[in-house]
Design brief:
The complex is a heterodimer of chains A (498) and B (423). Chain A is α+β, with helices and mostly antiparallel strands and 498 residues long. Chain A contains 18 helices and 18 strands. Chain B has 423 residues and is of the alpha+beta class. Chain B folds into three domains: 204 residues, Uridine Diphospho-n-acetylenolpyruvylglucosamine Reductase, domain 3 (2-Layer Sandwich), CATH 3.30.465; 98 residues, Alpha-Beta Plaits; 83 residues, Alpha-Beta Plaits. Classes of the chains: A alpha+beta (498), B alpha+beta (423). Bound molecules: flavin-adenine dinucleotide. Chain A: Keywords: FAD, Flavoprotein, Oxidoreductase.
């Protein structure tokens, strides 16, 4: 583990027994897990390179318990790490040695479905796919679809502002959540929004909570927008001899006013890995493959498919295949969806990155990545949410080989620096967590980060919720609160006075 | 531009303020000048009213400060890449200028910003990009495509600490750090002064058609709109204009009969198919009429800009957001106690209320909303004295209000920016 976490508090470690008993009094029965072997299941999340046993695991099943656990931890200065399903790829749910791991998995009920208002009210531990399952008999679904959707929780989605293949057209979690209930570190239960639009008349606290990675509050209920499923969907596979041509094709589709339901790109190594794994029928002799899915009324899909095929051809496509059945469409996606495990088969370990770039910079970034791949002597395969510029380079390495993990991490960091250098960002959907924490200064200046931390201070002045994540340096709120322009003193004497 | 702000702007110097005028106006033309003015205001503990063009000074609580900071000279589009669907501009750039520019490339602002000009008896087209975001103004397409806050990619701003900060970037998918851009949305200039905003732009639809269902009661309309929104027809607008309101849009062409409007936008063959689908589903509900192309656009522009209540008066007008199916119930309940005029957007979830007696009736309205599952009411037009005496924004439960106050004091500890504007 190469990331420094806040130094555990000896005082908290020394009081462990007392803390466990106090928590047992709040969450009775099996809701408190303190045996080392049972806590092993929680020592890591989707970023498995990092592991840490928590002080104790708590699995509450009422909001009142959540509130009392948090209030207790607040009073006693004990850090708390919220956890949903533990699929975070950025180490967001990595436990702390002196911290309570607060697991929301028992909050797994769908509370209300209101088709007339196109909304569903669910508990945070309901899986992303679970929402769709609850409404699909009426033709509805929940649009954001992270690849981890069978496992990840909606609470985790809110905390990470997760995306998915269909976010190009239907938006990220932030655009599909109408309201939440959350509990502050002080144990106060707050509600934001509901079935109405524009959650509050005042500040957009819902916007701040979404994507806050468990640092501002614990989400205990979520109201989401549900949509009627499009009448039909068809996908087209388009292969190109160069990634530049594929990039041009993507740009032209968007420029023509077509917003596909999904538009994914894979490079040669990813195509081969996927094809070897699931035999999706991908062409092997192309450098870049696009999967473009069009959804909507039949008439629209037919019309746009013809346009997309034409655009593909004018940009030098060497293969172009339209799905002729639902099975075939599923097969086209099977390869893309299995890309991660497929890469897992050709390498003992892989490390998934998540930068976003302006679409037009793709050729430059791919060329840069190739050079880095040579420099670090590690292979890389690329899958790419091409429509919105979100890259997922998969760096192949072997953790058992001396120094390879370290090289993979350095390689990854350089890729993200490159993304920022071309006008992009460090993370498109996986979050900062511990993984990208120390790269934050690549993208933000000191004052930028301080203003973000001031939001944190408004919610959690003692820095007890998920400390060590997102921010590279923890400033005490008192220190952040100091004004650098001193009252009563004119800081700019040459400026005319009011 | 209003006469008042035009003449004040003409006087305004940048960054040096005139020092004798009772109501001083500072209009910096650079980020650094903006920061210096805020710094000076902080050091002298002199609060600032923040405005773009001043087009929304009739919104929110009146701010009584001796000095005003205007972003009207922070103008200009700094980046526009149509193929990348992205545009950046200084915060004081008029929305109308941005809309005209992107229109040349067949693009538009998907959230259809409201123009409060007509409602406040001013010209259209005065609003600025910063103002639209600070007030999070979104029109009828909100139900399908999201609000202003959903289209902001990044910002640069000066907080009440006189420090420059940026958030977000220029790409759509970005979860790096807290989303301070959204935090600025709806903050009415009380946390920071925006200097630059980057937004997403999208292609205009090739065609549009509006189906009009005539003669429905408010309750029947709520049912029809719910059915349309819950269908796969990808409806991008659902409004209901009750008896007598319908006449006040589209230059009176619709007559008095209630009109329930369902908008379909997109590529020609797609709109035709969805039109056929919806017409078949709704033909037994009401008599159907259609507005095509420009007629449809004109109709929705009037609904968006609250033209039915653009009566040149200052009779109180409320903007209420609540669960769509509760909209007509609220109106029915209120009618028992007060003389009101009302119409609906957002499938019934956005209710525009005009209070005919001149009383705001804030408590009555908010009690009604609470009974119907919650939401919020904002007084968007009223005389200055009524706005000073009324909770213009929805009061929040104490713990939430305390949290909002902590956020305000983190960003603006000296209370320099728009004191009292949000209550
Ligand atoms: C194979 C695989 C594929 C993936 N594909 C995608 C993808 O396509 N798109 C994408 O965006 N992500 C993807 N992810 C990442 C991950 O699934 C998402 O970030 C997901 O939202 C995490 O949800 P979770 O319930 O597992 O949260 P966890 O991993 O348990 O926690 C994630 C973060 O949220 C916080 N948190 C969790 N629950 C709460 C709560 N109730 N209140 C407050 N904070 C909370 C935690 O503290 C932590 O910081 C993928 C992950 C894997 C393993």
């Amino acid at each position: 583990m190469s990331v420094a976490m806040p130094k555990p508090s000896e005082a908290v470690l020394d009081r462990r027994d007392e803390i466990v008993s106090a928590l047992q009094a709040i969450v009775p029965g099996e809701g408190v897990v303190d045996a080392t072997d049972e806590m092993r299941a929680f020592e890591t999340d989707g970023l498995t390179a990092y592991r840490q046993l928590p002080l104790v695991v708590v699995l509450p099943d009422t909001v009142d318990q959540v509130s009392r656990v948090l209030a207790y931890c607040h009073r006693n200065d004990i850090p708390v790490v919220p956890r949903g399903a533990g699929t975070s790829l950025s180490g967001g749910a990595l436990p702390l040695q002196d911290g309570v791991l607060l697991v929301l998995s028992k909050f797994n009920r769908v509370l209300e479905i209101d088709y007339d208002n196109r909304s569903a009210v669910v508990q945070p531990g309901v899986t992303n796919l679970g929402i769709t399952k609850a409404v699909e008999h009426r033709g509805f679904y929940y649009a954001p679809d992270p690849s981890s959707q069978i496992a990840c929780s909606i609470g985790g989605n809110v905390a990470e502002n997760s995306g998915g293949v269909h976010c190009l057209k239907y938006g990220l979690t932030a655009n599909n959540v109408l309201g939440i209930e959350f509990v502050t570190i002080e144990g106060e239960v707050m509600r934001l929004g509901g079935k109405h639009l524009d959650a509050e008349g005042g500040y957009d606290l819902l916007g701040l909570m979404t994507g806050s990675e468990g640092l501002l509050g614990v989400v205990t209920e979520v109201t989401v927008r549900i949509l009627q499923k499009p009448e039909t969907a068809r996908a087209v596979l388009i292969g190109f001899p160069t990634s530049e041509q594929a990039g041009e094709c993507v740009a032209e589709i968007i420029a023509k006013g077509i917003i596909p339901g999904g538009m994914e790109m894979m490079d040669r190594p990813a195509i081969h890995a996927a094809e070897d794994f699931v035999q999706a029928g991908y062409p092997r002799d192309v450098e870049a493959l696009l999967i473009v899915e069009l959804d909507g009324p039949q008439a629209e899909v037919d019309h746009l498919l013809a346009e997309v095929e034409a655009i593909g051809n004018t940009n030098g496509a060497v293969t172009c295949r339209v799905s002729q059945s639902e099975d075939e469409r599923a097969a086209f996606w099977a390869g893309r969806k299995a890309a991660f495990p497929a890469v897992g088969r050709i390498s003992p370990d892989y490390y998934c990155m998540d930068g976003t770039i302006p679409r037009k910079e793709l050729p430059k970034v791919l060329a840069g990545m190739k050079a880095l791949s040579e420099k670090y002597d590690l292979r890389v395969a690329n899958v790419f949410h091409a429509g919105d510029g979100n890259l997922h380079p998969l760096i192949l390495y072997d953790a058992n080989k001396e120094g390879e993990l370290h090289r993979a991490e350095e390689f990854g960091n350089d890729i993200l620096r490159l993304c920022v250098a071309v006008g992009g960002v460090l993370t498109g959907e996986h979050g900062v967590g511990v993984e990208k924490r120390d790269l934050m200064p690549e993208m933000f200046g000191e004052d930028d980060l301080k203003h973000q931390q001031r939001v944190k201070c408004a919610f959690d002045a003692k820095h007890l919720l998920n400390p060590g994540k997102v921010f590279p340096t923890l400033h005490r709120c008192a220190e952040l609160g100091r004004m650098h322009v001193h009252k009563g003193q004119v800081a700019f004497p040459d400026l005319p006075r009011f | 531009m209003t006469e008042r702000s035009a003449s004040r702007l003409a006087e305004a110097q940048s960054p040096a303020p005139p020092s004798t005028d009772a109501s001083r106006l500072y209009a910096p033309d650079s980020l650094e000048a903006l920061r210096e003015i805020v710094a000076a205001a902080v050091s002298l503990e002199e609060p600032l009213a923040i405005e773009g063009s001043g087009s929304k000074s009739g919104l929110g609580r009146p701010v009584n400060t001796a000095a005003t900071l205007s972003t009207a000279k922070l103008t200009g589009v700094t980046l526009y890449e149509p193929d990348e669907l992205v545009l950046s501009a200084r915060a004081g750039t008029p929305i109308a200028e941005i809309e005209a520019l992107i229109d040349e490339n067949g693009q538009r602002l998907e959230f259809e910003p409201i123009d409060y000009g007509p409602l406040h008896a001013r010209e259209r087209g005065l609003g600025t990009l910063g103002g639209v975001l600070a007030c999070n103004l979104s029109g009828p397409r909100r139900v399908k495509q999201g609000a202003a806050r959903d289209h902001v990619l990044g910002i640069t701003a000066v907080s009440g600490r006189a420090e420059v900060f940026k958030s977000g970037g220029r790409v759509v998918k970005n979860v790096t750090g807290y989303d301070l851009s959204k935090g600025m949305a709806g903050s009415y200039g009380t946390l920071a002064v925006l200097s630059d905003v980057t937004i997403k732009v999208l292609p205009k639809s090739e065609t549009e058609t509006t189906l009009l269902l005539r003669g429905l009661t408010d309750e029947e309309a709520a049912g029809a709109m719910a059915a349309a929104m819950g269908s796969p027809a990808e409806v991008s607008g659902a409004a209901h204009l009750p008896m007598l309101v319908a006449r006040r849009v589209a230059e009176g062409h619709l007559g008095d009969e209630p009109a329930t409007a369902i908008r379909l936008e997109g590529f020609g063959p797609s709109v035709a198919a969805r039109d056929a689908y919806l017409s078949a589903a709704l033909q037994n509900v009401a008599r159907l009429e259609r507005l095509e192309g420009e007629a449809s656009q004109a109709f929705w522009r009037d609904v968006k800009d609250v033209v039915p209540f653009a009566d040149g008066t200052d009779k109180p007008v409320w903007r209420v957001s609540l669960a769509p199916t509760a909209g007509h119930q609220l109106v029915m309940g209120l009618r028992r106690h007060a003389a009101i005029d009302a119409f609906y957007d957002w499938q019934g979830g956005l209710v525009w209320l005009r209070m005919e007696s001149g009383d705001a009736e804030a408590d009555l309205i908010r009690a009604g909303i609470a009974q119907l599952g919650g939401g919020h009411a904002t007084l968007v037009r009223a005389s200055e004295s009524l706005r000073a005496a009324t909770d213009v924004f929805q009061p929040q439960p104490a713990p939430l209000a305390a949290l909002a106050k902590r956020l305000k004091s983190e960003f603006d500890p000296a209370g320099i920016l728009n004191p009292g504007r949000m209550g």
